[in-house]
Hints:
The chain contains eight helices and 28 strands.
Amino acid sequence: MPTMKKFLILLLVSLLALVVIVAGILFTQTGNDLVKPYLKTELEKQIGLPVEVDTFKLRYDHTVLDIIIDKALKVDVYSDFKLLDQSFDGTYVIYANNFVYQKINLKEANINGEFYGVPDDLYVNGKGTSFEAPINYKLRVLKGDVQEIHIDLKEMPVADILTLAKQPALAKGKVDAHLVIPTLVKEKMHTQAHVTLNGITFNDALMKKLYKVTLPKSFSLAGNIDANLSDTHIVGKVDAKSNIANVTLENLKFNKNTKHVNSEYLIDIVNLKELSGLLRTKLDGMIVLQGDIEKTDTLKVTGFTDSLGGKINYKLLDKDFHSSIVAMPMQNMLKMFSFPAFVDSNTSGEIHYNLLSKKGHTKLSLADFKLAPNDVTKTLGKVMPMNPTDIVFGATSLEANVDGDEVVYSLMAKASEASISIGEGRINKEKDTHEAKIEFGFNKYAIAGSIGGSIRQPKVGFDTQGFMEDQILKNDFQDKVEKEVTRFLDRLF
């Protein structure tokens, strides 16, 4: 329970207990005036702040008590009581204007409440506004122990919650919360909480400054949190939804002493395109990720996805990422990265990448690799004795090394009568360059070519000499191939 809420409950219980204690003192104003210093001393001892007793009237059937705490929090109490059975009931009003307790500003608060019962069994309730949000609560004081505490908060600003938690004001929005605290006895104390998040948006400038992260402008978050909090542990579940992804955390456990956290997760990314800017690469489609997350000193994330067909297993250990791919349709991966589906094949392999050094290695094998129909294969098919898309390359490998902004790659595909190779492929994002050598072979013939220019506007050249003897036809075919490959690469990158 937040520190400020503890303070308010302590204040109420202390006031009501003192009202009962002084009930046995003479019902005269002189007697009342004598009691004032006692009230002031006891309240300051309980609360730990300066207290002024503005009004104190004790009569045979009722009591009036008005106090001011630290010149900013005003509390008025009125109580009717019966001496015979020592029962009483009454009302109280709490008003605050920029009241600060333990560096927490209550801002403007206005709470009205009631209490009733006997000294050993007292019931208290109240409602009003606190932290600029509606609050409703009830509790029971049984033999001096505060029990059965229920607190409802409506539309509390997220910015205020972050301030209470001494965190940067990263987000805006509203929070509803229902808290149940069975007892304030330290050894038994725990809190059951249900929290609803509404219209949460983030401060883009602050996210960039603190975490070097740029979220999509349209990003907003809503969801529910169910948790059980004790002095040492938090156990719960999170179900969050946004216009980009839905996230569920099951069996979430956090140890406050060791800082160890672990949870099962399910992430349903419904719009990968919105993450293109954040991940700095073109994306499309959707994907579901599920697995486990654990952190003490080192972050460990394991999981898998079968959204793309086949299966992708992955593990992130601190800064090292590793993924194994099993029988995944290459067309699905190309579509996810917004590439044209220029091959038809299932791929398997390994991916390694270090988030700190930004270095990595990828090695993939493609089973039954075929070129998918496109303008390039159509042009090649006009002069080849068979359609290039009918050729099945049984042994195909793709390797790539990543070093910061530079990717060096090679591809080798072989069939009984044909081969495709891309060697010395080099893409540099910082310099915006793409260089590679291409060779397409069929029987004893070969078409060699090269890629140059920029990533977005590559220049492709082919030499068809030896493949066709007729120079006019050769030049025409060469122009067509170069044109189609260039257009294809424009769409690809």
